[in-house]
Each structure stands twice: as C-alpha cells, then as structure tokens.
Amino acid sequence: MEEGFIVSNKMRKAIFTEVASGETSLARIIKKHHLIEQAARTAAEELQQHALIEDVEGALQLTELGVKTYGKLKARDSL
User: Which CATH fold topology does 2-75 show?
Assistant: First the structure.
C-alpha cells in the first residue's frame, strides 16, 4: 500500500529515493532535483506522516517501515 503512495507522486518518489540512498538534507534534494521548495517540504511531511522517513536531529533517514518499503520497490524495479 505504501508503495503506491510513494510512486504516485514525483516529489515523494524523488525525496524517498534520495533519503534511501543516504542523502540527509532536504535542501540538497530540492536543489538537485530542481523542486519547488514548499511542495517538496509538503511531500517530505507526507512521507513522515506515513512513517516512511523521519527527521533525526535535522537529518532525514528511513524508518523501519521505509526500509521494508524501499526493499519491495527495489525488488519490483519501481524506483
């Protein structure tokens, strides 16, 4: 279910993929993908509300659910 939530939105997918790859700064993700800042922040908040990523002392990282979901998406070549 969470897989569809991620891949259905370009910004959520980009942010989730970058965090899964080890990027911890939302500002760098926004700059790298040329995203609109407010929309990207909203997408990151949505990912946090769904417990896929978390902000730990200013650094984004995947939650346990996020790691499992990333594994499922990677296995299906959805990312």
Answer: Arc Repressor Mutant, subunit A (1.10.10)
